[in-house]
Specification:
- It is built from eleven helices and no strands.
- By secondary structure, it is an all-alpha fold.
Length: about 200
């Protein structure tokens, strides 16, 4: 089984050819964005074109990074229409574009399901926790390099990070999921800064 619209060469180039990691990233993309077209439609019903545009922009960026070119192109078409017609004067045209995006996503999900069924490398390994300072240094470096392998490192350590920093991790998780690595790095640096350094900054 193959994912027909996947540019695997492009996707693997950003993660050092790690096919197991790519499959994990694709699964995460499917899980995180599977309901996004419905969310976009809901925002547009509320006439919140700004929120709808942000959602489709995130899909476009994430799909492009993962080599899901058909989804990225369909998302670009929706985003371009929303930016050109913020008052939604052409709802039928926009609806057609959203339907094409949904079809592209459904096709990807079907292909991914078949790939997962046939894969023998999906068992999650039990990883020993790194000391928090080492984990933060590793994340900082990967985020600085915009290295997509940071997604897997973050997911594996999310429980440890949440124990240390609580709900502040939610924003970082959303940014990493959207491949907004530099912004995620800035927030991680801010929340992990020792209290005495924060006091000195004040």
């Amino acid at each position: 089984a193959v994912i027909r619209d996947l540019n695997a060469t492009k996707a693997l180039a950003s993660i050092r050819g790690d096919t197991a990691l790519l499959l994990r990233l694709l699964r995460q993309f499917a899980t995180s964005h599977g309901e996004d077209v419905a969310k976009i439609r809901a925002r547009l019903v509320e006439e919140d074109t700004k929120a709808g545009t942000m959602l489709v922009h995130t899909i476009k960026g994430a799909a492009g990074t993962l080599g899901l070119e058909h989804i990225a192109q369909a998302a670009l078409a929706v985003e371009s229409e929303l930016r050109a017609d913020q008052q939604l004067h052409n709802p039928d045209g926009l609806d057609d574009l959203l339907e094409k995006l949904q079809l592209a996503f459904s096709r990807f999900q079907q292909d991914l399901s078949l790939v997962i069924e046939q894969s023998k490398d999906l068992t999650d390994s039990t990883l020993e926790e790194l000391p928090l300072d080492q984990l933060l240094a590793q994340l900082d470096e990967l985020l600085r390099l915009s290295d997509a392998s940071v997604n897997q490192v973050f997911w594996d350590a999310e429980g440890q990070l949440r124990s240390a920093y609580g709900d502040a991790i939610d924003q970082i998780s959303a940014l990493i999921d959207g491949y907004e690595y530099l912004e995620a790095r800035n927030i991680l640096a801010r929340i992990s800064k020792p209290q005495d350094q924060e006091d000195e900054a004040i």
